[in-house]
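lol ok so funny story. i was supposed to be doing the assay writeup but got distracted and ended up predicting the structure for this chain instead. priorities right. anyway since i did it might as well share w the group, maybe its usefull for someone
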Amino acid sequence: MRHNRVREIFNSDELLLDTRMHSPWGNEIDMIGCTALNTVQVVAEYGALETLDFENLCRAAEANNLGKIIKIDSAGQELRVQRAIGAGFEAVVFVDVHDRAEAEECVRIIRASTPGDDGLNPVRLVRAFYPGYGGTQAYIEQLREIVVILMIEKAEAVENLNSILDIEGIDGIIWGPGDYWQSMGQPEKRGTDEDRAIQTHVHRAALDRGVEPIVEINSFEEAAPWLDMGIRMFSLGTTVSILHKYWRQHGDGVRELHAQRKQTAAAAD
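and the output, tada:
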């Protein structure tokens, strides 16, 4: 069985710094491992990823001593989550949670099917628990170490926030403004002062209950007010968006330089 790097970070005062990726290419993780980041978040909710991809991404993260978080679709989540844990992921981000009952189900999906844990995870011969078959006390305890993170991204989740945060086994939350405002029928409010106020309320409520917020930011300057609040976990951009921003900025820049030179040449004629 393997050391849980994400749990180690959650149980310490260490910063958690990840970036989100959709790709099955382990070389991206090798590059992330050459930076100040200590965790990678695989957004399987958006990427075309299979179980074999999960295993290879985990191998790359382990080679770089990176924590391994995976974000899974809500549809069919029990099987996908358990396969991801079996591949080696140490933390799971659950999406589309509305109320306490759904949040409790997220914890049960991860925990072992044993008295006291009341989980849904059976005994399996999977990579994360090699060479054992599972079903041992060590297996049960290692499933308890898997970090459970919830997206707070539905209007109902905000309404039921306190009862969700009080559930034993919920370790972290992430604010999801796009889904929240879509669920409110007001997508234009994403990024507004009202959005920031609700996000702040969600983060403070989590901190008050010992649940760690992971804040999604696009530059290190954005971390300052959250650090002042006592938050120490951050997700720095998404690889496809980082690439798009670079290509857009510098591609437009080259075109502008070219246009300026054409204008200069025309004026000279």
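Residues 239-268 form the longest helix (30 residues). The chain has one domain: 5-242.
back to the writeup now i swear
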